[in-house]
Design goal:
With 103 residues, this protein is α+β, with helices and mostly antiparallel strands. The protein has one domain. 14% of the residues lie in helices and 29% in strands. It binds zinc ion (ZN) (2 copies).
């Protein structure tokens, strides 16, 4: 057994999907988020991937304003898009989880 929290110094060569979050967004908010993500993802191209998928307004916009302000209100307008953010964990060849396959 290895300690998953121990630092490994080998270079990462594999990525496995860690988590996916979904946010429903209305038209103006998905545009904002796209612009933001283009800036913020620049430095981390291999650890996160972001997709915007259009939907037919069956959900309300999840966008909440400035999280640091006191008056946080959820947008609530019908959503036109879903933002899918996939976080990936990077592993070296030895530590890559093999999903139960034995070698
Ligand atoms: Zn919105
Ligand atoms: Zn490793």
């Amino acid at each position: 057994m290895f300690d998953p929290f121990a630092a490994c110094e080998r270079p990462a060569t594999r990525a496995s999907v860690d988590s996916t979050t979904e946010d429903h967004l209305c038209e103006p908010h998905q545009r904002d988020e796209r612009q933001e993500s283009e800036k913020s993802l620049d430095g981390y191209p291999s650890e996160q991937s972001l997709q915007f998928v259009s939907i037919n307004g069956e959900a309300a916009c999840d966008y909440v304003g400035d999280l640091l302000s006191d008056s946080v209100t959820r947008c609530g307008v019908s959503a036109t898009h879903v933002k899918l953010l996939t976080q990936r964990a990077l592993y070296c060849e030895d530590h890559f989880p093999r999903n139960g396959d034995s070698l």
